[in-house]
Each structure stands twice: as C-alpha cells, then as structure tokens.
Amino acid sequence: AERPIDDLALRRQRRRTRILTVLVAAVVAAALALGGVVYGLVNARQAQVAQQAAATELLTAPDVRTYTATMKDGGQISFVVSRSLNRAMFIGKDLPAVGADQTYQLWTLEGQHPIPDNLVAGGGDRQEFFRETLSGVTGLAVSVENAAGAQQPNPSTIQVVTELAA
Question: What is the pTM of this model?
C-alpha cells in the first residue's frame, strides 16, 4: 500500500534543511574568522615574547655597553650595544612627539657613511632594535625624518650621533 506524498511535510523538510544549511555556514564562517583572530593574537604574542627575550639577552650580554645622550629636541635616549651579539638597541625615554608626517629614524655609521635603519614613533617611551649588525659600524645616530624615512639623514634634524668604542 503506497502512502500519499505529503506535499506540506516535504516543503517543511526542505525549509528546515535550507535553514540548517545557512546556520551551519554561518557557524563555520564565524569559527574561521575567530580562528584567524586567535592565530593573529598568538603570532603577535610570540613576536612580543621573542622581542623581550632578545632584549634580555642583549641587556645581560657580558660585553654590553650603554651610551646615553639627551636629544637636541629633548628626550633621553640610550644606545645599548653588544659587539659579541653583533646587535644594538635604541631606548628612548619621554621622546618628544614629532609631526604626523615625521618619524625618528635610526642610523648606523660606517665612518662618515650613514646607513638607514629602523623607524621609531615619537612621543613617550620607545624601544627598537637596529636591523643592521655592528660589523664595521663605528657609530649610531638618530634623526627626525619624513614619515617614510630617508636614505640620507637631514643634517639639520640629526638629534644624536654617538661614536662606539672599538
């Protein structure tokens, strides 16, 4: 005995299937988005931990030397240097704010030849590693440059030039 097809029940079943499909798709999209956010946070945290470990390693190096100075525009800075680790770090205390279209730029010096390095935002306390290693470097400097940085320092905006011990 064949049962008659219940058209209304069939339509309800299809509607439930569509709603369920849309809900599952929404949950999957939300999970993927959340996963991306979590992944980004974990990566940022790992980078922060790695930066702190590198700073601790530099600050506790047996040959660490700290060169302190007051910038021309105010603000205390230090260059922390370890020849054995071949690394240097810039530390700024109470850095004066610079214009929205400007930034502090770090430089390594090989004799009289300046090599552009990392950029540092103005205002407040800042800490930034130099990208360049210290091989052949005789000095470190900081200047104020356009926000994108410069290939040569602007002589009138050089804040500090520090000669490094051999």
Answer: 0.69
